[in-house]
Amino acid sequence: MHSVLGGAGARPPSLGPARPPSATGLRGVAPPSTASSAGAGAPTPVAVDDLGRLRLLPPAVADAAESLRDETRDFASRLDEFLALVQDLVEVVDARSKEIETAKLRTGRRSRYAREPTASRHAA
Q1: Residue 22 domain-assigned (yes or no)
Q2: Which PANTHER family match (predicted)?
Q3: Helical H runs in the chain?
Q4: Alpha carbons within 13 A on the beta-carbon side of 47
């Protein structure tokens, strides 16, 4: 018989039965390989950088990755500046187009008023 509360280590029914850990790791993803590209069975090289941090990447690859990260951040900041400039330009163009439309409407009213005969203007 099963207890309603379950015992120590019991899983809630919503999670289903407990499964043994698989050889493929979490969520079906294979665990990281310990073999390097230098040869099968060779351990992954571990390096210590200038700040005493452990590194799994070779120094050249780590430097290239840092350089790429810095270039990406620089590009993103320049892109943000560009987007701000474009937004300002769109606002200026919109404001100017409204001014032009208003001027067109005024000009149209004036020309229509000027084309009307004088008698009809005084009759109203």
Answers
A1: no
A2: INTRAFLAGELLAR TRANSPORT PROTEIN 20 HOMOLOG (PTHR31978)
A3: 59-115, 118-123
A4: 12
């210590």: which residue's tokens? 48
In percent, how much of the chain has pLDDT > 70? Answer: 59
**Residues 50/59, Cβ–Cβ less than 8 Å:** no
End-to-end Cα spacing for the chain = 100
User: Long-range contacts made by residues 98-106, C-beta under 8 angstroms, separation at least 24?
Assistant: none
Flag whether 26 is in a domain: no
Q: What's the one-letter identity of residue 115?
A: R
Domain count, the chain: 1
Domain enclosing residue 67, as ranges: 43-123
Residue 89 counted as domain residue: yes
**Encoded amino acid at 18, one letter:** A
Residue 9 in any domain: the answer is no
What's the alpha-carbon Rg for the chain, to the nearest Å? 37
Please give the structure tokens belonging to residue 70: 């810095």
Helix (H) or strand (E) holding 58, with range, is: none
